[in-house]
Amino acid sequence: MERYQQLFKRLENNKEGAFVPFCHPRRPKPDAIVTDH
């Protein structure tokens, strides 16, 4: 349980940095997508 609490604390302290990779997964550059289409 302590490990989970620490993880949650880190998420609360770094919401942006922690959730960015999940909300914005690595994708090819938009320029590449535009050229493909």
Automatic annotation (TrEMBL):
This is Tryptophan synthase alpha chain. It comes from the Bacteria. The lineage of its organism: Bacteria, Pseudomonadati, Pseudomonadota, Gammaproteobacteria, Enterobacterales.
